[in-house]
Specification:
two-stranded antiparallel ribbon; 7 helices; Kinase-like_dom_sf
Length: 183
């Protein structure tokens, strides 16, 4: 698969020369995350041609988003992938990294059902500070709770949502409290 970067030619050439081009960042982040034992699709080659940056990876499978949208997986498989994504996120955080672009469209499913990250240029060191990743995770929890309703949670619903979380996922409640995200 080939990914192209469409910025102005001058910006791309200057960025490449300075070592700040998004291709260079993505290669660096992919190597670092893979070196930490995380499942990252390897980048086979990269470069800049005609002033446009590109990188090439092997085909690893369809995106998780596509598989979920086409309903090609059983409920059990979806649960297994959810746990795998949680372990992947936890492993990144435990190693001091966070990928702000980790989403189902940037996760590929291989032939055996394994998950692989792509588009790792958004990975950053946490520097021991987890506030931002926790805020993102807390917002996802709230978004999940409100998605089916199509509106914000009301006061009584907030209490029921929190009670359900306390029972099923005590860690999620501590994430919400630590991130100071109001429900």
């Amino acid at each position: 698969m080939i990914k192209r970067f469409d910025h102005s030619v001058l910006r791309q050439r200057l960025g490449w020369w300075l070592g700040l081009h998004p291709v260079q960042r993505e290669v660096h982040c992919a190597e670092r995350l893979a070196g930490l034992g995380l499942p990252v699709v390897p980048i086979e080659s990269c470069g800049i041609e005609g002033g446009r940056g590109w990188l090439m990876t092997p085909y690893a499978g369809p995106s998780l988003q596509g598989v979920l949208e086409r309903r090609e997986a059983s409920r059990g498989q979806v649960r297994a992938w959810s746990r795998a994504l949680g372990r992947m996120t936890g492993a990144m955080l435990a190693r001091g990294w966070w990928n702000r672009d980790l989403k189902t469209s940037n996760v590929l499913v291989d032939a055996s059902g394994g998950l692989w990250m792509i588009d790792t240029g958004g990975a950053r060191r946490t520097g021991g500070r987890l506030e931002r990743p926790l805020r993102v995770m807390a917002r996802l929890l709230v978004k999940t709770a409100t998605q089916d309703l199509g509106r914000p949670l009301r006061e009584g619903e907030r209490a029921a949502f929190l009670a359900g979380l306390r029972e099923k996922a005590p860690l999620a409640v501590s994430v919400l409290r630590r991130a100071s995200v109001p429900l």
